[in-house]
Amino acid sequence: MDIERLRFLLENVKSGHTTIDDALKDLKNLPYEDLGFARIDHHRALRNGYPEVVFCQGKTEEQVRIIMEKLVAHNRTVLATRATPRMYQEVSKSIPGARYHELGRIIEFGAGVTPKKGTILVISAGTADLPVAEEAAITGNAWGHFVEKLYDVGVAGIHRLLDKQQLLNTARVIIVVAGMEGALASVVAGLVDKPVIGVPTSVGYGASFLGLAPLLTMLNSCAAGIGVVNIDNGFGAAALASAIIRSEETES
Amino acid sequence: MDIERLRFLLENVKSGHTTIDDALKDLKNLPYEDLGFARIDHHRALRNGYPEVVFCQGKTEEQVRIIMEKLVAHNRTVLATRATPRMYQEVSKSIPGARYHELGRIIEFGAGVTPKKGTILVISAGTADLPVAEEAAITGNAWGHFVEKLYDVGVAGIHRLLDKQQLLNTARVIIVVAGMEGALASVVAGLVDKPVIGVPTSVGYGASFLGLAPLLTMLNSCAAGIGVVNIDNGFGAAALASAIIRSEETES
Amino acid sequence: MDIERLRFLLENVKSGHTTIDDALKDLKNLPYEDLGFARIDHHRALRNGYPEVVFCQGKTEEQVRIIMEKLVAHNRTVLATRATPRMYQEVSKSIPGARYHELGRIIEFGAGVTPKKGTILVISAGTADLPVAEEAAITGNAWGHFVEKLYDVGVAGIHRLLDKQQLLNTARVIIVVAGMEGALASVVAGLVDKPVIGVPTSVGYGASFLGLAPLLTMLNSCAAGIGVVNIDNGFGAAALASAIIRSEETES
Amino acid sequence: MDIERLRFLLENVKSGHTTIDDALKDLKNLPYEDLGFARIDHHRALRNGYPEVVFCQGKTEEQVRIIMEKLVAHNRTVLATRATPRMYQEVSKSIPGARYHELGRIIEFGAGVTPKKGTILVISAGTADLPVAEEAAITGNAWGHFVEKLYDVGVAGIHRLLDKQQLLNTARVIIVVAGMEGALASVVAGLVDKPVIGVPTSVGYGASFLGLAPLLTMLNSCAAGIGVVNIDNGFGAAALASAIIRSEETES
Amino acid sequence: MDIERLRFLLENVKSGHTTIDDALKDLKNLPYEDLGFARIDHHRALRNGYPEVVFCQGKTEEQVRIIMEKLVAHNRTVLATRATPRMYQEVSKSIPGARYHELGRIIEFGAGVTPKKGTILVISAGTADLPVAEEAAITGNAWGHFVEKLYDVGVAGIHRLLDKQQLLNTARVIIVVAGMEGALASVVAGLVDKPVIGVPTSVGYGASFLGLAPLLTMLNSCAAGIGVVNIDNGFGAAALASAIIRSEETES
Amino acid sequence: MDIERLRFLLENVKSGHTTIDDALKDLKNLPYEDLGFARIDHHRALRNGYPEVVFCQGKTEEQVRIIMEKLVAHNRTVLATRATPRMYQEVSKSIPGARYHELGRIIEFGAGVTPKKGTILVISAGTADLPVAEEAAITGNAWGHFVEKLYDVGVAGIHRLLDKQQLLNTARVIIVVAGMEGALASVVAGLVDKPVIGVPTSVGYGASFLGLAPLLTMLNSCAAGIGVVNIDNGFGAAALASAIIRSEETES
Amino acid sequence: MDIERLRFLLENVKSGHTTIDDALKDLKNLPYEDLGFARIDHHRALRNGYPEVVFCQGKTEEQVRIIMEKLVAHNRTVLATRATPRMYQEVSKSIPGARYHELGRIIEFGAGVTPKKGTILVISAGTADLPVAEEAAITGNAWGHFVEKLYDVGVAGIHRLLDKQQLLNTARVIIVVAGMEGALASVVAGLVDKPVIGVPTSVGYGASFLGLAPLLTMLNSCAAGIGVVNIDNGFGAAALASAIIRSEETES
Amino acid sequence: MDIERLRFLLENVKSGHTTIDDALKDLKNLPYEDLGFARIDHHRALRNGYPEVVFCQGKTEEQVRIIMEKLVAHNRTVLATRATPRMYQEVSKSIPGARYHELGRIIEFGAGVTPKKGTILVISAGTADLPVAEEAAITGNAWGHFVEKLYDVGVAGIHRLLDKQQLLNTARVIIVVAGMEGALASVVAGLVDKPVIGVPTSVGYGASFLGLAPLLTMLNSCAAGIGVVNIDNGFGAAALASAIIRSEETES
């Protein structure tokens, strides 16, 4: 239930088209009760202003489709992250407008938040980090931000980064996606004076211990100004970046 | 090596003033040499605008004093974090204007950045988390931000948090400092739609494993929009918060 | 060996019917031998009164069927946990009365303990936690307790929990099933004054480390009154809940 | 916000006394504001009925004294756990009625909850586990329960346990405190059909890894009906035991 | 090359049927050179007196067959541990006398060491531990020892163990195979005064962490006299048991 | 209570010097009841045949003295391991016959078990491993075995080991004490065909992680026939070695 | 772009066949810009002098083929490590000259660096370590070094190693590849006085924890002169060995 | 046992001077006995040519003095690492020529190896890493190498590194000492084509976990050519660097 629908309800109360008792019934159950958890998210969406998101990992293809059907009915934009191609096939049966971002493993419905505002720069260290980087990029875009990408920038190629000083300068927030030793986040944070979000990835082998190595690297960074999210959590990084950009509206 | 110097080199090759072998040697090391990177750093220093900070842990009292003397000579504001009372005694011998924040373990010199801008809300879970919370609060203040505090808000007392909805609403960034199980960061992030910085602390015992428990809790939070810093790293949280607030100037 | 048998032995020594060496041999092994311990076990079986349970994980389909056949012959109710659909197919060949709870992965035979007594409230954090939550719910029901469910209550939707104050109030024991960061157990324990059983789940990814994160969270909870069971151990939680409810009969 | 206030708001919208925009603002923050949550807490305070507890670890002697002074003014019974002898000296300056349990490291003020109800049996494995066992025993007693103790029962001396079958039978809840390998909890849970609370301790060395070994042992117990609390958390075990005993009043 | 073949060589030297140079050639290259690593094992077999063993895990079916063919040519008994049924099919193509122990996952060729000597008692905690227990039992038998088995003796069924006091008394060495919490090794070591070999298994889930839990349990046992081998290492336990039994021949 | 005292009691019953009721009283309470845990150990001593041992770590000096006084009254030999010099001073006040092994940190009372039987060879890798090695050596000697020592044999000095082939050959059991990487146990087990007991030590730094490194090394040894005890557990190694040597009496 | 092509460009500038502006354009973008990441590697190849390498793990067969096609166009030698047989089939479609080393999992194109220089000795502990050892050996050979192999040298067969003293003596660098307990690296480093590179492998089971055990063993080696690379990183070991051999040219 | 001795043995068998049984006994222990291994060691000592080193950690002041006295009697240069000032005081009583490097915690006796050869560059990340860096520098110097230092080069100040291109170019080996996140080693290895030795340090706090973070970072470096030594092991890094420099003499 977005803000427009709520305003519409109140206007109907005022005009008498809706009785107070009917409105009460709607409002009382509004945040969570009736239709199950979908409504909770309505409430959250109302306050948060960003599109609904389904985390698909561990769900069946049917579950993903059913949840998306419900959400699509009440939201302009819906994302489903960690979605497999087969999940998309299932979803597209009943939601023809859904699109699939294969590399980023995201099913997207709707046009995203507009107008766009603020630039998120997504930097990734290696080819294998791309799925996580794309998850961040697509999410950031759908939530109403400009997204720039700087991919395949290993620590061994720092000069590539430096040449993009312009990009580094114009971004509001920088997301650094890196597996293996994850040193890239420290290097980037040493070059700029803006919020850097580190996303360690499970890319690597042996003593990377499924992403523990880059996670610890980013947490221990000697460069200040890095906030770290969970291993492989491209979505979370974009959510934080979006919150950072929108936070300036707070001030009055 | 800027484009002019490169052109000059090639012209010398063409004219024969430089042998091909000498030019080859120059070009082989091309991307990193001379002034290129120093400029970046200079640039960073200019833009950063925040006070110098000394991390005292693992240094002797004399080392802290000597370093502070040098910094005080060229900076309006200097902070020394993780400083013991004896370090402060040593420092105050030669820097009479230095003040000591005992709870936050910070020696502060100078007036801090002015005018102030943007509000950081620092929330802490328990009494034992206060040194870390204060480290964040003092740093945020010295770096030119308004700081509000909401201390001793355990998960068992969520209503305290909710009662402060006004505070939650006006802050630009929220820092949540919590040890033991660290659940507070998730709860706060579930209530607001703004950037939350989680600072796990080593407060606790047994299976807290020196802060590992709240660190994992915050990284795995089901609420989006949390960036995590190192265990006990109050300073780092304030640095990230400051970068977030200042980032809006970036945009043009 | 009870006191009468001991006296008899000594009398035989005195009278010479038993040699000292034979008596020594008997006495050396005194505390553990004869019927002592068997009796305990018998006693335990009598008092336990709960249905037999088979843990299917790591067993073949045939093994599960054979074990269930034996148990069904001597028990009114038998549960088989962590059972796959194919295990159920195999079991239903020879035990037509067996039912399968697909979500909770349990094969159930018999009517369960009656009359029912005491209410167990099972709360779960996310959709992916449902198999574990159902394992707890079905077990609790089969063992003779009323079971209420409150599913999909993330930390971000605490208000849902609060609206169910009535449910929270009437339950004797509350089981909280949560993966990712597992903060829900702390929040629930902060709201009630009754035993809370925390079941961390392996739901999550990255730094959840297969359930380590919610496990540590629950163990370090700042709210008192939480007992934690193994990761994904819905059955164990129900067993503990059942023991808690039945424990009041102990008192005399 | 109760239903009456919501109706009142809508009537004001209808009558025009409240603009739609003002109503919208109110409704947006609906679930958390006013008195709702405070009431819960009040409610909890009323129902809890157990004495206030101060966790002293990490606090200064003065802090402990000041906190206790405040609590003593409004509570009949106050406990301070993990208290050092010097903390007690400080506290006894201004609270002459305070007593110190040296082994259990608890400062106790007041007579405890009366009348007593329900028996907690505290079993410990070794001499070095006594401080944790005593912390549990003293807390259980102060909170209004009978406490029986069975100390120094290693796995190598199981027969001692069996001889106390009477004790095992009359207890409502059994707390098992064990370090090193922590196997005692499994053995006890195998002998009884009542709730067992496992408290791993940091007693041991080498591969005990500060209590990790007994913690894992207890969590993986093949005997059902064990709830585990944090390493060395004797207080938490008693709190859970108390909640279990009091839970039977819930039922109506 | 067993001791008989070596004696035969020396007798031929003595009698002149083999020249010293030919014998030298044989002996000089004896320990490792010629045929590759197979010969090393010959040498080891000579000194160690036990049959050759192939560890199949990580090898292809063909590799297992080829290695066994070589070993069978020079040894009376050969074992292949961690062998799959398909490895056995491959091996039996060229070694018709090979037998397969499916539960213990061992291919055995030859009659084993005779005459038998000394009794190894293999105790296991649960059904799922049987493959490891059988690996130990078959190996112990093939290496020339009597093997008694006591399977499915959980900590919850200690009386079964106690009832078998006779078995416990006659064994020279006891191997305890246990997963989950692994407490059984402590219990057994508390009942007897003879060497106990603990074999933690990866049986379990969640906080068993693939066998870490029982491994730590056994290492921290409060009962003296336990030696621990690697997780799931039934073979290693039998090898140690065999060395213990044979060690008495050392003395003179 | 050793076997002689038990025989004496029975003879008195037979001869009539002790009434059956008096004997009953003695025997009934024998294993554990009356005087606390000291009696349990009497019983254990009876069945196990080895001297009493006190583990001093975590006990006060007074506690050690009191426990030793009780044990000395009923035992020919008593050991106190992990004893500090100050504990010895306290003990020697009331037990003048006690001796202190400073390097091995053991207080010894009595002559030890005689006659001696079987040789234990204790090998240590470095100087810093000596306290653990000596703990093993002194215990083995006190429990009635010959002890040979081969100290400071690092992996870099394997030839020292090989030169002692005679020593390796005559020992019944070999205890290898090694910190840092702990490879010595593998090397020794590769040279002999007898039971090897590995004792990882906490000697080392950095990635030794307090003994985890040598612990894992020994558990994963590619040489068969190694049983591992807890980190720094020299006593446990000697206890296992003693059980191995005594186990041969079992057979009949 | 190798050194020859760069020299050619400069000669064209000198001779006037290329204008300075055209050369500038080439050179300015040289290290990274235009064709994507392939050029970075050109630059690196130029400075490093070794062939291009593709790390195939986590890439699709098509991705591997496309990357190799680009690299083959500009390099004399290209290696693709961690390549599956199906990747090779795909690659060989368009690069007929590519060869596949099945055991070492490497696709190799080109003749390798010549002339050869310096000997790398690759020692491996067990058969299962061969893929990693071969990865090192093939890489070392392709990068222009002589490679000697000494495979299947377990700690139990140290004499094999000693017999190869000649090999040990002539090598410039020794790479030791070992899983399980990894003690071989210590033993080798104890025998020689030259750089030893330890490669722990994930070969093993149970407490090897996917290679953690040999990793810690090698890091804690009591023998000086060992540098350790990541678990299973045969390529990295060869790269380090190659850098060591080439480093002597540095000196002037 | 060399070939002559073996021939002699066989001749004695042939002639009857040695019985077959005696010959068998000799041959059974063949590969390891007499002079073979001692020679290796002798050989190693001769070739090593580097000063004796005492690792002082865990030794008493007296032990250090006694060991140094012995070594000083037979060696031109002796180092004692991890030495405290009080150890130095003790040592200087009897060895007046000993010098103490306070920052590097090394006692040095003698002039070191001369003439010097090959340059080791020691780079450190932060002030707190200096003790480890100095340990490496002093050792490298004493062992006969030129040592250059580049201290306090954090990842945030990469330009400092780049400005020292000349230093990077002339060094034979580079040792990088870094705590916290340890990213410096990756950055350095990305800039040069020569062996880099990474020394993680325990400098840091929280999620650095005593050096685990930089250790994992360095092991997972995406830049090839890094060998890692134990946490804080400056000495080991210098030993490896020295072996690398001296290795070129090997070739003939």
From TrEMBL, chains A, B, C, D, E, F, G, H:
InterPro entries: P2CMN_synthase_LarB, PurE_dom. It holds the Pfam family AIRC. One of its GO terms (biological process) is 'de novo' IMP biosynthetic process. Gene3D superfamilies: 3.40.50.1970. Residues 118-250 form the PurE domain. GO terms for molecular function: hydrolase activity. It comes from the Bacteria. Coiled coil: none annotated. This is 1-(5-phosphoribosyl)-5-amino-4-imidazole-carboxylate carboxylase. It comes from Formimonas warabiya.
